[in-house]
Predict the structure.
Amino acid sequence: MVNGTSALFADSGAKGWPLSRIATPSLDDDGSYDTDAKVPLSEYIPSIVHRWQQSNSILSLAASDRYIFAGTGGNEIQVFGTETYQQVGTLTGHGGSVLCLYVSTRKSLLFSGGSDSILKVWDTDSLKELYTIYSVSDIGDIFAVLYSEMLETVFFGSQNASIQWCNMTTIDRHTSLDKSGLPSNRFSKFFNSSGPGGKSSPMPKETMLAVPQTLIELPYHNVVPYAHFGYVYCMLIYQPPVHTPLGIAEEYILSGGGDGNVNLWAMRNGTFVCLRKLSNSTSVLCMTVMDTFLYCGLTDGVINIWDLDAFQLIKSVQAHKEDVLSIASFGNCVFSGSAGYVRKWSRDLSLGSRWECHNGLILSTIAVERDKRRVLITGGNDDSIALWDITDSFPNCRPDLSFANDQLLASLATFVSFRTVSGSEEYLADCRRCATFLKSLLKKFGAASHLIVTDNNRNPIVYGRFSANASDKTDTTVLFYGHYDVIDASGSGKWETEPHSLSGLNGYLYGRGVSDNKGPVLAAVFAAAELFQEGKLRTNVVFLIEGEEECGSIGFQASVSAKKDLIGHDIDWILVSNSYWLDDEVPCLNYGLRGVIHLTVEVSSDRPDLHSGVDGGIDREPLMDLTKLLAKLTDDAGKVLVPGFYEPVRPITEAEERLYGQIGQNSSIGLSKELLMAKWRLPSLTVHAINVSGPPNQTIIPHKATATISLRIVPDQDTDAVSATIQHCLVSQFAAFKSRNHLSIKVNRQADAWLGDPENAAFKTLANAIKEAWGVYPLYIREGGTIPAVRFLEKEFDAPAAQLPCGQASDHAHLDNERLRVLNLYNAKNIWRRAFDELPNRAKLTNGL
């Protein structure tokens, strides 16, 4: 890994970078590169993996195996997980902007320097501060820092042109808890002297944590006062190959400064000695090294290549129009950042490609390897950090990522790209392509997979079966149900990203269907696939993924019943993941859903639309009859007046009371038991819309008025009986009007309620898996919505169901900016892995085996 460095930190004030903004390369994208017509510009642009939006400019970057560290203009170091992209912490302690970061080669230490003249050392595992290092002289900003594992010494370059160092093995000789020597507690001729009007600008105070950290005051002799005749902007370690003149078992330090020089240093007998000076035309802002080639980014947009074997300038390229602010290298590629654009170069600085990374200056760039993938991380003064997958830049780098989390994200991106809006002829082809994609994915992972055709040319059901292959496999068979269709995302204009292009921002994935239900479906698919490929799948796992759930699962029941021989008659458990937590903090298990009956009620007249000024008051109007009829369905308090509507509702049990009590003990949720019971376990009636015939003006008496209503029903209410009762109620009430108008009622669709058993083996297995993944046991919840297939599958296969909510309450399912937290996606996969491994055979449970 080679860390890039940067030195200029102007803030353009640019905000609101759109995640999908990746420019197509052109020869004059910023008017700066004088390209040779004989060198074709590659069309390769890396894909953006994730972006983090912050509130301050990103001035410096570093990475360990677990974390990405970002130094900001807000005096903080933001920490992000490399696996989940979640922000995991904020390191505070600097009293000014964090201008430079460096992670030791062994990835155990993080060094940070800032405009407060302080150098801090952190443990990259615990994220705890270890030391605060400061100079006895006034050095100004610390622009560059590095740590030599060979010398066990940290070096840093500063605004006052000095380079200083601290040997970490002798650090105890200089430690103290006395804060009086800190730069902010000393009089500074620069900061404290009076300026115009007799005012001064004292140095910012560094923040000391509640537990004082060990302070280290560097001795006077650990400094080269004028290492450069200008600011020391950048530093890096150079260990030359053995065949070069410098090729001995020694590490060298390269420093670049405002004087245009790159100086080569070595530690000799405790003295920091300058061995060579390489002169450039302007200030050296950033550097990277590849083998014996040194690449210097300069203030005028030039990149110089130096041969460190011959100490000769071999090439100079006008790389950017603006200053080259950051540079990094990996393999045979060099990446340079300037105003908005990153450019990828070959080792001889032939331009390979370029793309727009930030809406402003690119102040820091690093290239790292993560999970056998190569990534570029960039930070800018648009307050954002971007993670780019540059693996395809290296033809020989083809890691096997069939089941890694990166491949899960890549497959989810493809899955989301299909506009699978059910019930629309416009998206029928996309729905078919999506079903084929899912079938092919299942086959690729080793499952038997087919498309089950549904009636009336509806979207097909994707069937897949992973057969148990572990040495200790069982006879257990679980059926996972999900859906690939989505709600239409067009028309609102409030999406901040392209809804059918998966976008990563601040630890979340954005896109239509990512939470409902494509992300949860793929989490389960990858869980089964990983176990199968590892030869550890102990249960048979059957997938039924339909394409009409958002339209009421039209055709699903008939098709599943007809293909029961294919699906299997020996299903032990039904598993679902199609709901959400109560809040954003506490995982849940869902054990109940309300059913639904959707009706259309229409009142019409034999006459056409009329004018109220001509015919008003002559006869009963259809709209008046309809509104009066609807009013008969509830009393003034909203209680449903359909005869016998509430009679089947079972009283709450002591066991369920305890579950509600556990929810009430969680202060982050803030919902009363009474409210939750009304939403979950009590039936309701809703009038959704009233439409009328005729033009939309205020003088028309419509000849027809239509209302859409629904009833949410609960366990023990018979769906057919409730449907018949409300229709009879409407007919009888309308008859009492003695109106010449006509009433018609149509039942559009209906679905049964579902109530699971939180005490059964499926719920207990999932609860233990949740505890392992999240560190807490779940809350047991019900939900007021309906999933038509759940109760049907229970009855069809005589198997109990359990539901694992994957997403958070803030996921915005069915709304603009639908999202799913990456951590939730990964943990859902891990929970399903354990469930598929541990769920028992239900017949053997019944027989006590």
User: Anything to note?
Assistant: DSSP finds 14 helices and 48 strands in the chain. Residues 1-41, 208-212 have pLDDT under 50 and may be disordered. Residues 596 and 712 are 5 Å apart (CA to CA). Residues 514-533 form the longest helix (20 residues).
